[in-house]
Amino acid sequence: MTDHTTAPGAQPExxxxxxxxxxxxxxxxxxxxxxxVDEAAGDAYSAVYPGIVDEARSVVRxxxxxxxxxxxxSVNDGSRGTDPDYERAPDxxxxxxxxxxxxxxVAQIEAFFEGLELVEPGVVSVPLWRPEESGGPAPAPIGQHxxxxxxx
Length: 152
Prior knowledge:
This protein is an alpha+beta fold. Helix content is 32%, strand content 14%. The chain has five helices and five strands; from the N terminus they run H-H-H-E-H-E-H-E-E-E. Strands 1, 2, 3, 4 and 5 form a five-stranded mixed β-sheet that branches. Helix 1 (21-28) packs across helix 2 (36-48). The mean pLDDT is 83.
């Protein structure tokens, strides 16, 4: 009988050459805690069953399907690519073992609005969405993007 226990305080070993379902989901959600083998496995799986991927979009689609023409969708989410300090904060939080929060690439946030009529200025860093209406100085972009769109 083989003993598979790990000494107290020691890190369990894992094989990064073998895909793991948790890391594949991380890849599908736009996370960075995965390896090339996980990406390859995730791509192969989604090639056969594309519906497995970014569930958030399908939830939004189902909600919009029940709304009449003229309804609006507003989305605001944490994003990557604007503020490295902001990106480090959730990355550090995710490393604690808590339920993770993954920042989305801006393209993923834009995808929520497919088929809808975006209200100007479109999907932008949140403080840049109509800053002229605030009457204050021009705001700086932050690591959160959002937009507003109308269902045709």
